[in-house]
Amino acid sequence: MLMVQKFGGTSVAGVEAVRRAAGILASAVRSGAAVAAVLSAQGDTTDALLSTAAQYNPNPSPRELDMLLSTGEQASAALMAMTLEDMGLPVVSLTGWQAGMGTDAAHGAARLRRLSPGRVQRELEAGKIVLIAGFQGLSPQGDITTLGRGGSDTTAVAVAAALEADVCRIYTDVDGVFTADPRRVPAARRLPEIDVREMHTLASLGAQVLHERSVALAERFSVPLEVRSSFTDAPGTAVMPLPLPAGEGRLTAVTEHGGLATLAGTHLRAFPALGPRAKAALETAGIGVRSYLETDGRLSVQVEPDRGEEALRTLHRVFLEPGP
């Protein structure tokens, strides 16, 4: 089995977190899997580097900023490699460009244009765990680039696609994908599986569990995705195509950003008068609705920004929580 794992910043924030993540990698290897892993920078490292840069130059060039920011993921990969070495496991850490990540020249928001995974494949065939610094690549001019926020997710899915991996597991600080952000909606439920198109909708609306570009890549190249927590043994959420019988609809989750609350699902027009029902539910809760827009994959309702949290919880309670 060939597996790609990705560990987000909170999953490698400090010695104990790194050791916990190393244990996950070691367990996969001992089960017989070949493993490549993509690492984000530790904790708030990227924000700290941005703050440091501002002390030297309030307006650094995008090229030099990418030179600086890419060091966060490199340090994370190297420290994980040292931890695995201490556990007696064969491992090698690679920068994005050593792993074959080629991008365009848009510093700070680069797009992957090619991936040459030969080095990664050779190291895997040699029996090593391959650790790849996420979020970064090399431009056609030979300069270091970064992919923007959430870029390590994109790196992981691209590596999984190039290697034709059996699964790509994204490890984070939540137990999977929920019907709403569980930090904002305590009644939110973990979804054992979610349709990849619905996940793309949620990611495009600001749901932070996966980056939008990574989900689009997974859909395009049929990469099996799983979202799991590196802190618990919860089974997580599988992201895959989930067909529905003709004529049926599915309401999956709700998200909110800046006063725009959105119900995401599939074949929403199968639900009679969904928009008016949502408007009525919000107005009954004392939340004024400025406008709403319904498509077959989402229902977006605009409320005053300071009422967004209430709108999120109201729509979740009315449409996604079991009845009495």
Describe this structure in words.
The chain is an alpha/beta fold and 324 residues long. The chain folds into two domains: 2-173, Acetylglutamate kinase-like (Carbamate kinase), CATH 3.40.1160.10; 250-319, Alpha-Beta Plaits (2-Layer Sandwich), CATH 3.30.70. 36% of the residues lie in helices and 24% in strands. The protein has an eight-stranded mixed β-sheet with strand order 3-6-2-1-9-11-12-10, sandwiched between helices. It has a four-stranded antiparallel β-sheet with strand order 13-14-16-15, with helices on both faces. α1 (15-30) links the parallel β1 (2-7) and β2. The longest helix has 25 residues, at 62-86. The radius of gyration is 21 Å and the shape is globular.
The total count of helices amounts to 9
> On the 0-100 scale, what is the average pLDDT?
95
Largest beta sheet: strand ordering: 3-6-2-1-9-11-12-10
String of helices and strands: EHEHHEEEHEEEHEEHHEEEEHEEH
- What does the overall shape look like? globular
Instruction: Work out the count of structural domains.
Output: 2
Low-confidence stretches: none
Could you give the count of β-strands? 16
Q: What fold name stands as the CATH topology of the largest domain?
A: Carbamate kinase
Protein structure class: alpha/beta
CATH architecture of the largest domain: 3-Layer(aba) Sandwich
Strand content: 15-25%
Helix content: 25-40%
Taking the sheet with the most strands, its summary is: 8 strands, mixed
